[in-house]
Design brief:
Molybdenum Cofactor Biosythetic Enzyme, Chain A, elongated, alpha/beta, Molybdopterin biosynthesis moea protein, domain 2, six-stranded mixed beta sheet, homodimer
């Protein structure tokens, strides 16, 4: 039953083979939608801005009327009127005319540019233009921000403040988003105790339930903790069935030794199917992927740092798939400050701190999670490589 | 009253001169604390792990007993017993003895290393060690993760999933965090309408209220929108007084032209003090910083992209100060893909997309916010510089 895969193969399983429900959509008020993911393409029903606007305080002109104008030889234009901020104008200018206009004011018919006030001088109802402006100078055209019919934000976009701003500009008071994926979180192991308890020798606090709950929130999911199941197959089967019935996917953690992963794999096999049992990566080896009762199951390592990495690399990818989010991680380039050695035969994930363009390794034992809190991101050391040299360029994946 | 400062001076004003209340603390359940900021240093009351543990399945040994052992000439040790996972052991080994131990099992007294099972062979109650191990090999010592008395996380730390994991490992079921800063958000301008309305020519939707509400949430604040005040001093004074009375700080936006910023500055001056009126940066020039009724006030540009940048550079800095968060933005190094030109005399903020180690400029007019949604971060072009060349190294501040 042991079926060890590479990290890339495991990512492929999460992307294509694990069961993935299609999520229903819900319509949310815009102010409640930040952090959620669009369930539909958003197409603009209108031009933004709706009309050509001035970007300066000055005079709306026909650019051709200013050609050749200088301080010594200004163009002389008749001021046909004044545009008011926030008001529609019925003003129309003809050759030889201009209109006073504030920043943001609507360009009058006939005008195609704005000359800033500091290049003009007024004498009665005359305006002297002391510089030439080219057509469209100091003007935002209708639809410059968003044109009617344009797909502005695609389904699968996770809404940032900037995209909330874009939706507000389009007049979307509510937006369609996917419901949050529901994730059941289950710890296993006789030695695992609630975090508030003082561990007796041999006992370990249930760090992973809390770690995974907050990772689920970061990934845009609704996590539910199901407590700790003992190392006993029937109890584990019952807990797995319950969590699978009530969620879109289940995260199991706590099994850190070879024997533990075996029990997890056996239970998954009995209720569904094991896709892989073991990943050739450090940390993260004792990871099991499969399905129970038609729901995706991630059997994660018990060591919190290993659990964190497998969540970041596999569960995040799976959640992106559910939410149709095509965002790929953008690594940043840096160079290593020191040699790092690595094991042959499996990839290694190493925490680093960024110092300008330098990546400084942050070491920790795999059970230790504090190095994650002290790092900015991680690098991947390829398998079949004895390590990386000081000065070598690396891709840093930021947290 | 016009008092234009550089961007650095404006950041300095936000950091030191604007009024900053000291925020009360509250004790939250750990699972509700992610994204919040610690109000106290967290000192460990215990060692994590509490006892020395094995990191492998194998045999706990006295390292000295294995020195010189090889497959051809194994050390022969008596198996004194078996350590069970999750149980305290009273076992103690003497020279010439070892004990079977699982991953995560408690190291027995007398042992100082673990030899992995694959380097051993058992014959009855004898264990043949086919390799030497050095002291502490395959062992996590008590306190390796966190030592008793150590400051594990400092006041001002914003809690990520990894730091939630660290707190869980320390048995913190609840944690002390600062209450969320309360921020009042007020738009101004006769031309500004609610986003659900169809703008008549000359009208503009109130993008900034929604943009700032979601930025406040990202910064860990509780934002409250106070609607749109007209361009009329008494109405603006009344709205400012109300927002200042009910919040820790007030964000005003909507004044985009010179005249608007003047009205904002006048109103602030009447109720308190103007610290600066204008910043030599593009976009973001018509920004006013001050205080009203003893509360910090940010008069932000009306153009959403400019508003976004000033929030990111000034308000975030101010909120960090309230929350004692000393995190500085870590720019990543990249090289520009094309020449960019810039104005003399003021700094310029330019959106870029990252493509590997290449920074690709993303242009947009200052009223346009969609370029923010399409970019990964921004660069700062220094003042008194005519621009940057293709290939030039730049610091990219990621969103």
């Amino acid at each position: 039953m042991l079926n060890v895969v590479s990290l890339n193969e495991a990512v492929g399983i999460a992307r294509t083979r694990m069961p993935a429900p299609s999520l229903a959509a819900e319509e949310l008020p815009l102010d409640a939608a930040a952090g959620r993911t669009l369930s539909e393409d958003i197409v603009s029903g209108e031009n933004v801005p709706a009309f050509a606007r001035s970007t300066m305080d000055g005079f709306a002109v026909r650019a051709a009327d200013t050609f050749g104008a200088t301080a010594a030889l200004p163009s002389m234009l008749r001021v046909a009127g004044e545009i008011k901020m926030g008001e529609e104008t019925s003003l129309s200018i003809v050759p030889g005319e201009c209109a006073a206009i504030p920043t943001g004011g609507m360009l009058p018919k006939g005008a195609d540019a704005v000359i800033p006030v500091e290049y003009t001088e007024t004498q009665g109802d005359l305006c002297l233009c002391c510089a030439a402006v080219s057509p469209l100078r100091n003007v935002t055209r209708a639809g410059d921000d968003v044109a009617r019919g344009q797909v502005v934000l695609k389904a699968g976009t996770r809404l940032t403040p900037a995209s909330v701003g874009v939706l507000a500009a389009m007049g979307r008071g509510t937006v369609p988003v996917f419901r949050r994926p529901k994730i059941g979180i289950l710890s296993t192991g006789n030695e695992i105790i609630a975090i508030e308890k003082k561990p007796l020798p041999g006992q370990i606090r249930d760090v992973n339930s809390h770690l995974l709950l907050s990772l689920c929130a970061v990934y845009g999911c609704e996590g539910t903790a199901y407590g700790v199941a003992p190392d006993e197959k029937n109890a584990l089967l019952a807990a797995l069935r319950e969590a699978a019935a009530e969620n879109d996917a289940v995260l199991l953690s706590g099994g850190s030794s070879a024997g533990k992963a075996d029990l997890t794999a056996e239970a998954i096999d009995e209720l569904g199917e094991v896709y892989c049992h073991g990943i050739a990566v450090k940390p993260g080896k004792p990871t099991v992927l499969g399905q129970v009762c038609g729901k995706a199951v991630f059997g994660l390592p018990g060591h919190p740092a290993a659990c964190w990495f497998m969540a970041e690399l596999l569960i995040k990818e799976y959640v992106h798939r559910l939410l149709r989010d095509e965002t790929a991680p953008v690594p940043v380039k840096a160079s290593l400050t020191e040699h790092v050695s690595s094991n042959h035969g499996r990839e290694e994930l190493l925490c680093v701190r960024l110092d300008g363009a330098a990546a400084v390794p942050v070491y920790g034992k795999s059970g230790v999670i504090s190095q994650l809190a002290a790092a900015d991101g991680y690098i991947v050391i390829p398998r079949d490589c004895e390590g990386l040299r000081a000065g070598e360029p690396v891709d840093v994946y930021l947290f």
